[in-house]
Amino acid sequence: MPAGRKNVCEACYWRGLHKKRVKLDQAVFESPRFATLFADFGAWLQCHVGEHRAALTVHRYVPFFAEIEKHWGTIPAYPDLLKSFGAEGLRRVRLPMKWLAESKQTTVDAVAREADSEIRRVGAIIATVPAATVGAIVLSVYSNKLRTKIAAGKLTTRSMRLALRPAASLLLSADASGRSLPDQTAVDGLLCKAPGQLAALSGFIRFLNERYTLGLTAAVDEKFVAARRRKSLERTLLTLARSGDGKESFLREWVCICLEYFHGLPLRLSRQISDYSIAIDADGCRVSIAGREYWIPTRQSVAG
């Protein structure tokens, strides 16, 4: 028996402690109904996570049940819980929500939960632009336009978030204080840093041109992007050459980066090759892809 527990075994100790803590927590509730409800949850928690963890964690869920009792006096429908706690808040009480669902006291709506998460993410994006500035007004008008499309069934909330992210980035890159509209330099600068945002940013550029007659164009300088990518690959190769351990995972990454750097093969293609397609000798590696053989150097030759 553990020291200090006399003749009580480990499992019995935690079981007894859990029971004691549940009983103490029941005193928080005003109605016998919720006191019983919490005891039922406590019993489920003990079976679900074990006596030890249940005893240590049961108290943290009291505020959730107390809040429900205070606002509704009964277990409300899932949309009401979502509206009050938000998707993030409900994730923090994952186990009570799991119990409520398993005991048929509520029905979780995953679609509504994800929509709530997206709405909160949208709010966070809008909040990145200083309030009551030109930038904030522009972003608000643009978001309202996107919401109109959502209401018409032409756009999803997720698509709205993906459209607002580069819009906010452009406004902030043009003027971090949010006091001025973007110019062509800001557009070109952002697309140089994030060329993959071209499609998402194009809608915002059209909006700016239509509403503010800015005459902006959204285009990616392919030569600049290619040169920047090559520099990035070169740095990655040097880092791998100096720190590589020669294990299988390293070899796979080395081959992928080398095939793009030396032969212009996209990563998505090189990641599909099998280990049997790679032959290593003293001079380097020979990689066979679709009937063609590509040579790449060894780590040691690059590091040296």
UniProtKB/TrEMBL annotation:
Q: Which UniProt keywords apply?
A: Membrane, Transmembrane, Transmembrane helix
Where does the source fall among the domains of life?
Bacteria
Q: Where are the transmembrane segments?
A: 122-142
What is the recorded name of this protein?
Uncharacterized protein
Question: Which source organism?
Answer: Paraburkholderia denitrificans
